[in-house]
Amino acid sequence: MAVKEPMSGTPDPVVDAYKPGIDRTLIRENLKRSPEERVRALQQLQAFAEELRRAGKALREANER
Amino acid sequence: MNDFERILAGLRSTEVSFVIVGGVAATVHGSARLTSDVDVVYERSLANIERLVAAMAPLNPYLRGAPAGLPFHFDVETVRRGLNFTLTTDAGPVDVLGEIAGVGDYDAVLSVSEDVSLFGAIYRCINLDALIVAKRAAGRPKDLEAVAELELIRDESSSRSNPDA
Lengths: 65, 165
Fold this sequence. Notes:
The complex is a heterodimer. By secondary structure, chain A is mainly alpha-helical. Chain A has 3 helices and no strands. Chain A is flat and about 55 Å long. Chain A starts with 12 loop residues before the first helix and ends with a helix. By secondary structure, chain B is an alpha+beta fold. In chain B, helix 1 (about 5-15) crosses helix 3 (about 45-55) and helix 6 runs antiparallel to helix 7 (about 140-160). Chain B is globular. Chain B starts with a helix and ends with a helix.
């Protein structure tokens, strides 16, 4: 192992504070997929996010008129 | 839209020595978080830098966030003089990194990587434990939030492979 820092065996209160807000069901669903399926799903999610941003921008511009 | 396949296939086509790290690596390991760029750690030999530059050229790389018109060229000399580059390309944002915090350079990252099958090819991807170390070392709030998810993924993966544990 060539990493310069110890593995994350020591609890970190900041990291632990984030954990209750993470949806474990999404993790479990992802772990049922292959790595390629996960990356393709990420690409689809990105495309969806881009479309939402585009729609939001169009809505703001329409409201300003 | 980001074209991960085009980016990775381009690097593979010119036989660049690289390892997938960052958010895409997190996705490979099961993360549900949205990431927008491809991060890779590349080997710093002259021959590999030449292959990297050749692979990136068709994607028209440019410094991300920099004003248009700067005299920036992603060429061999630029890469030799620099180390880590955050780029915008025709296929989406790409970070080409000579090293990453907490793990180190290409050889160090390669030693903690594993094969992953993507788009019909095999790539090297940083393993989950080392990715957690790298994210923790990066230390930004978004990295620590990512660490929290990656640790939960490790717990879930462990319980799936050892259901009686």
